[in-house]
Amino acid sequence: MNEISLMPAEQYQRLQQRNAADVKELWDLLDIIKDPELPVLSIWDLGILRDIERDGDRITVTITPTYSGCPAMDNIRTDVEKALNEAGYQEVTVNMSLSPAWSSEWMSPEGRKNLREYGIAPPEDADLDEDGLTPEAHAQCPHCRSRDTRRISEFGSTACKALFQCNDCNEPFDYFKKI
Amino acid sequence: MSDAIKQATLEYVTRLGDDSVVLGHRISEWVSYGPFLEEDIAYGNVALDYIGRARMYYSYAAELADDGRTEDDFAYMRSDRDYRNMLLMEMPRGDFAYSQVRQLLADAYATVMLPELVKSKDQTIAAVAAKAIKETKYHLRRSRDWVLRLGDGTEESHQRTQKAVDQLWGYTHELFDMDETEQLLADNGIGVDVSKLRDAWHAMVSEILTTATLTVPDDSWAVRGGRTGYHTENLGHMLTEMQIVHRSHPGCQW
Predict the structure, then answer these.
(1) How far apart are CA A83 and CA A77, in angstroms?
(2) B247 interface with A at CB cutoff 8 Å
(3) Among the listed ranges A145-159, B41-55, B147-161, which one has the minimum average pLDDT value?
(4) What are the tens digits of pLDDT across the range B121-136?
(5) pLDDT, tens digit, for every residue of A70-79?
(6) Does residue A32 sit in the same domain as residue A100?
(7) Residues of A near B (CB-CB distance < 8 A)?
(8) C-alpha angle B20-B15-B28 in degrees, rounded to nearest 5
(9) Which InterPro entries match (chain B) (predicted)?
(10) What's the pLDDT tens digit per position in B82-122?
(11) What pLDDT score does B117 carry?
């Protein structure tokens, strides 16, 4: 199956920001930091990593939570500090930024692909209307690719996921919500 | 920022934090008691969103207060008379219908309030609101669906839901009250004039209740006090439970 990647504007801007950064090596370095609850997604893939600045010896990293109460943020902050310390940067500040609010549009194309392979349907794998995730969303089963699925609950194992079940292969699966 | 505005803003974000943490805690009381696993998880998720909001408001309050207090001090080291949450948020868990009706009333409030709060000239307040709006859409859809299902369900579920509506209605007037602090902030483009939101809220809630074959109560009684620190007895009990670990082990961190 051919995959045509349509990059959302938000994602394009993020990519531009990363490529134009004067600390591009730090963006690359932080690719090793994964979301503790989604180990196939780096904080770059998920769009949690917002900015990296260098001022002399001081590195300031800006991250943003996916949901208000995301419990992974404290872990991520520690992981970022540790990775930079180990790379020889001793003065590290990690800022939490709330605005603009995180959007699932920021997720990278690789992240979406990895998510699907991991067994979680990415945001674009469901039919969404203005009202969001209705019972008729028919999220695509990441296991057998069937669209004959039903929504079990809009609230899944973490704040960013909803629970579906496939009517063809019967497997339950998570769907990463679009917000 | 002038001192008066700064003080008012501190008071305001503390109120918003109190509303969020109290409701978040109440919702969390369903965890492991939900009618089935998915509902258990759903309420856990919603609780997390509210507690997350509370953290953001409280950390901002701590920043504004600038007197050494942290977000934890705001959540755990204040007594019921210091809390400024609206009474609706502290009402006990009740049965599932009661909790879902309260959730609907609160979600509808958030739905009309947050789009105004997002316009706040205070960037932190606006940012928290922008984040919360997205989550509120999910919350409202769920509480709405449940109230429809319970109201228009069996005779028993209908009765329980109607009873919850009747019992909670008197606490909703407070949601739209303004005092000097809120007026000052509304006039300065920082807070929201919630008195202007009641009609939109009432229309939204009435439509849902009517569709659920429930009767919208008249406005004959109203209870107030939360914003001035006069609470129902429920809050003290709730805070005792919520604060016990932190107060027993001062300064402890997870």
Answers:
(1) 10
(2) no
(3) A145-159
(4) 999 999 999 989 989 9
(5) 878 889 999 9
(6) yes
(7) 65, 67-71, 97-102, 131-133, 152-157, 159, 163, 177, 179
(8) 20
(9) Aromatic_CoA_ox/epox (IPR052703), Ferritin-like (IPR012347), Ferritin-like_SF (IPR009078), PaaA_PaaC (IPR007814), PaaC (IPR011882)
(10) 999 999 999 999 999 999 999 999 999 999 999 999 999 99
(11) 97
List, as ranges, residues 80-139 from B with C-beta within 8 Å of A.
Answer: 123-124, 126-128, 130-135, 137-138
Contacts of B55 in chain A (CB under 8 A): 68-69
Measured between CA atoms, how close is B54 to chain A, in angstroms?
9
Domain holding A17: CATH number? 3.30.300.130
The whole domain housing A32 covers 9-106
- The residue-averaged pLDDT of A120-141 equals 82
Do A84 and A14 fall within a single domain?
yes
Partners of A154 on chain B (C-beta within 8 Å) are 42, 138, 141-142
Exposed / middle / buried, residue B38 (Cβ in 10 Å: 0-12, 13-18, 19+): middle
- Does B5 reach chain A within 8 Å, measured CB to CB? no
In a domain, A102, yes or no: yes
The type of residue at B104 is L
Neighbours of B87 (CB within 10 A): 24
CA distance B170 to B59: 32
Number of domains in chain A: 2
B3-248 falls under which CATH superfamily?
Answer: Ferritin, core subunit, four-helix bundle (1.20.1260.10)
Contact by Cβ (8 Å): A146, B133? no
